[in-house]
Amino acid sequence: MALVDSTVVRNLSTTAVLVGEQNALERVAALFEAAYVRVVSSPNAAAAGNRLADVMPQVVVILGTLRPDERSELTDKATAVGALVMNIDPELDRETLDELVNRAVRTARARRLRAETNEHEAEGAPSTD
What we know:
By secondary structure, this protein is of the alpha/beta class. It contains 4 helices and 4 strands, in the order βαβαβαβα. The chain has helices at 22-34, 45-55, 68-80, 94-124, and strands spanning 15-19, 38-42, 59-63, 84-88. The radius of gyration is 17 Å and the shape is globular. The two termini are 33 Å apart. The relative contact order is 0.18.
């Protein structure tokens, strides 16, 4: 009987966490999803912050305003998981909103690819033991 090496398959999806009121999130979520970015929506900063370590997003998008303490805490948690925080005014005109979301999509993809590349390099690096 031959031994077979097992291969671990990882699903490294590009993910964005959206924070804000549901009506503000719908348009932005649709734009991310159209670009094949997984979307996780949270109604407030506390809920979003609690999910970041599980979701591991590349980008956290805040729609609307947060209190300074909420923004600071969410930014700290996002930074800890390697996510960029973007603030978007949900009242922006459609063209500007589309451009900001497209920029967020490009940023999320670039961050995911960079993380994936770093992980592959670390797996292939010789041991320093």
